[in-house]
Amino acid sequence: MVFKDPSAQEPGVSAALVDREVFLDFLEREGLAAVWIMTGEKSAHGGPARGDGWGGQLDYWGVYTVVNGDLKGALSFEQKNPSPKQLAAFLAAT
Questions:
Q1: Whole-number Cα distances in Å, 16 to 1, 3, 80
Q2: Which of 10, 57, 68, 90 could form a disulfide with 53 if both were Cys (CB 3.0 to 4.6 A apart)?
Q3: d(C-alpha 43, C-alpha 3), whole Å
Q4: Are 18 and 43 contained in the same domain?
Q5: Which percentage of the chain shows pLDDT scores above 90?
Q6: C-alpha angle 54/38/73, rounded to 5°?
Q7: Are residues 88 and 42 part of one domain?
Q8: In this structure, are 18 and 52 located in the same domain?
Q9: Which residues contact 74 (CB under 8 A, 6 or more apart)?
Q10: Which residues lie closer than 8 Å to 80 by C-beta, 6 or more apart?
Q11: How far is it, in rounded angstroms, from Cα 27 to Cα 65?
Q12: DSSP label of 12
């Protein structure tokens, strides 16, 4: 079996599981490279009653690829801080 989604046969989260050797051999044979790009954010927002309350945000991104059979890459992070007024409004409403 080359590809499997375990949730097709048992309860749980859907996932793509691929036979590593078959996948890497295919990429090499076809002159291709796998690249994974990840991006996202975590943030703390207030609801309508909180007005301009905001607790900050963390953005993250990264690029990964396979080099000589090993996964290589790194995540980068950027923290965005609230102004004192935004933080005070956020904390007052929690």
A1: 12, 7, 33
A2: 90
A3: 35
A4: no
A5: 57
A6: 120
A7: yes
A8: no
A9: 62
A10: 56, 57, 58, 59
A11: 12
A12: S
Q: Quote the pTM value.
A: 0.67
Task: Identify the domain containing residue 83 by its residue range.
Answer: 33-94
* Whether residue 63 sits in one domain with residue 18: no
Q: How many domains does the chain have?
A: 2
On whether both 22 and 41 belong to a single domain, the answer is no
Buried b (16+ CB within 10 A) or exposed e, 79-90: eeebeeebbebb
Query: SS3 for 85?
Result: helix
Examine the pLDDT at 1 and tell me if it is beyond 80: no
Coil/strand/helix, residue 33? coil
